[in-house]
């Protein structure tokens, strides 16, 4: 593979080269890359902004994460934060800090992943910068989205008796991470070793190429439901539930046997000799949506494909608990992805 | 001074602690820190977004940059990008990557600087995150601002015969940088050495605590002038002029003897045995505004305090040149701050 030094293009040359194939998709994008700031026109819509900083060695390991996947995931996790407000992502900015280790071709790979995500989710790249870094790769993405006034779901709106719903299944991304870590020696260049991923592709994909639940937000709009509260599950179900309970000043009861878990996740947990519920409660990076809706919508949500009702909101005084299969009440604890702890 | 380990607070605890004193100042800020995304309502205004990634060892050197100044400057340079669109900054998000070297008190200092800037410029902190980093300090700031439809100044609008204007004076921040680099040994702990900054305070301040030209954007609004093009000077006058010329498909003539330079900058250039015009043309980080206005406004702009007319726009075929004091035409070259070159 060719290796073009980034210095041969320079910062402006590189940005131009990387962004030239991105097409404008949204009418709210007035001006994209190339000025002091991007210009957007949201008219009567409200503006949602979220931002993420990803650091090599902390948030990703390039030994087993291909750069194209990293680009895709970096963008998608930001889109997920906008969907989690019941909104739609429309623009992103991408800033990179790149050490000499990386070539133009490497950064092209990263941008190819970002472009794939932007194309799939209908998002415009409108800005960002690229600079040298002393060590490693730093990715900072900001995502701007639209929400309809009065239809944005915050974390603080859950009410006593609301149903607690979750999309998709949980714990798979974490199992994928453990699997990749276990097989890391293969990627490190030990050629005699071969990765053992047969039958575990779903777990790997959930870790390396997660999707944001645009479809769920669209479904909710179709049936004209605005969740009373919503979050995406990036730090683990326990941690996110506790956020909603704290910010809404409520308690909750979730039922262990209702937590949606994929078959491959269960097999893998057994292989790792790990408690499956613990993995599903605390494994992060699923990017599924966790939300609450009024109790009277029970009939609708019990039958909505891809959504599972896992419990209900209670009065704050009752605390936040999980009801185990054998009927025990255990207090929820956040053991999630807190990278500083 | 106390040293509290960041791990004792955790990510959420730290964010809460750091952001608790920030007050909401703008009606466009609907929801700030604490959800998946911030919510803004810009009504009939257009939305401006700019972002900056600052990496230790590349963009700043903590040997001589106090953390409070760094926080202030990190915020202000983003505000400057919004003013450069003829808009007003309203919200920022701040993401930090922090290695174990830094204590809670260090990050408090940084945030104190950010708060000072937000208070002075009337900007709300609405989001961001803090995570561990493998090495050094990483700061990613995104600024959101408002612009009036039809009154936003892009780089691409300069027209033949337009006047070229510059606010303040140029080259001082660069001289401040050279001075700080020279005196670095003092800060490195060589106690016998004392910094020699007497009479050079202006240069140091321009480097460590730059201001964004909100006042100029307000002045322009007051006299009802929308610049045909505008940029802030972060990479040096030459480089920025060439951006405007390229994006506007025009040429330019600027006059060496009209470039505004402070007395201290001139003294320092002599001390460093450096060509003063070269320093003023290529020294970066002045954060002054460079803009163009129609020729018929000559009378107004020749007498506007804090603004200097330095030349005019020409047809593209005439190229971009500086006219020296002795009447020579020299082609402008961008030798600015391109950190990747």
Write the SSE topology.
The structure is a homodimer of 341-residue chains.
Chain A: H1 10-19, E1 29-31, E2 38-40, E3 46-55, H2 67-83, E4 88-98, H3 104-121, E5 124-127, E6 130-132, E7 137-147, E8 163-167, H4 172-182, H5 184-187, H6 201-208, H7 214-222, E9 229-232, H8 237-248, E10 251-255, H9 263-271, H10 276-282, E11 289-293, H11 298-302, E12 307-314, E13 320-323, E14 329-331
Parallel strand pairs in A: 4-5, 4-6, 10-13
Antiparallel strand pairs in A: 1-2, 3-7, 4-7, 8-11, 8-12, 9-11, 10-12, 13-14
Helix pairs in contact in A: 2-3, 4-6
List keywords for this structure.
homodimer, 341 residues, alpha+beta, Phosphoribosyl-aminoimidazole Synthetase, Chain A, domain 2, 2 domains, seven-stranded mixed sheet, 32% helix, 23% strand
Please mark out the parts of chain A with pLDDT under 50 across 5 or more consecutive residues, or reply none.
337-341
- Radius of gyration of chain A in whole Å, from Cα? 21 Å
The 3D shape of chain A can be described as globular
Summarize the biggest pleated sheet of chain A.
7 strands, mixed
Q: For the residues shown, what is the average pLDDT of chain A?
A: 92
Largest interface: A-B, 74 and 74 residues
What series of H and E elements makes up the topology of chain A? Answer: HEEEHEHEEEEHHHHEHEHHEHEEE
| CATH-defined fold name of the largest domain in chain A | Phosphoribosyl-aminoimidazole Synthetase, Chain A, domain 2
The CATH superfamily of the largest domain in chain A bears the name PurM-like C-terminal domain
Summarize the amount of helix of chain A as a percent range: 25-40%
Strand content of chain A: 15-25%
Provide the spatial order of strands within the biggest beta sheet of chain A. Answer: 9-11-8-12-10-13-14
Terminal-residue CA separation of chain A:
40 Å
Assembly of the depicted chains:
homodimer
Q: What is the strand tally of chain A?
A: 14
Number of helix segments of chain A?
Answer: 11
């Amino acid at each position: 593979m060719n290796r073009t030094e980034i210095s041969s293009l320079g910062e402006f040359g590189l940005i131009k080269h990387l962004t030239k194939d991105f097409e404008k998709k949204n009418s709210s994008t007035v001006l994209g890359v190339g000025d002091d700031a991007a210009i957007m026109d949201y008219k009567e819509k409200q503006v949602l902004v979220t931002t993420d900083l990803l650091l090599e060695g902390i948030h990703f390991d390039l030994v087993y994460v291909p750069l194209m996947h990293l680009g895709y995931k970096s963008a998608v996790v930001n889109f997920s934060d906008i969907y989690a407000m019941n909104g739609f992502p429309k623009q992103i900015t991408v800033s990179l800090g790149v050490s000499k280790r990386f070539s133009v071709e490497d950064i092209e790979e990263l941008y190819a992943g970002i472009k794939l995500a932007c194309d799939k989710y209908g998002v415009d790249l409108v800005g960002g910068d690229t600079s040298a870094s002393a060590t490693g790769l730093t990715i900072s993405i900001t995502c701007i989205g639209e929400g309809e006034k009065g239809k944005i779901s915050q974390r603080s709106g859950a009410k006593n008796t609301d149903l607690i719903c979750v999309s998709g299944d949980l714990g798979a991304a974490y199992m994928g991470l453990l699997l990749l870590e276990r097989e890391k020696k293969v990627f490190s260049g030990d050629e005699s070793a071969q990765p053992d991923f047969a039958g575990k592709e779903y777990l790997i994909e959930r870790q390396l190429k997660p999707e944001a639940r645009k479809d769920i937000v669209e479904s909710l709009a179709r049936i004209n439901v605005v969740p009373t509260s919503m979050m995406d599950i990036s730090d683990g179900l326990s941690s996110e539930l506790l956020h909603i309970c704290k910010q809404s000043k409520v308690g909750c009861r979730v039922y262990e046997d209702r937590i949606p878990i994929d078959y491959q996740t269960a097999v893998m947990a057994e292989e790792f000799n790990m408690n499956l519920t613990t993995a599903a409660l605390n494994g992060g990076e699923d990017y599924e949506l966790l939300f609450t809706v009024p109790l009277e919508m029970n009939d609708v949500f019990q039958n909505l494909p891809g959504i599972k009702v896992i419990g209900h909101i209670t009065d704050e005084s009752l605390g936040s608990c999980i009801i185990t299969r054998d009927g025990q009440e255990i207090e929820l604890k956040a053991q999630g992805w807190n990278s500083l702890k």
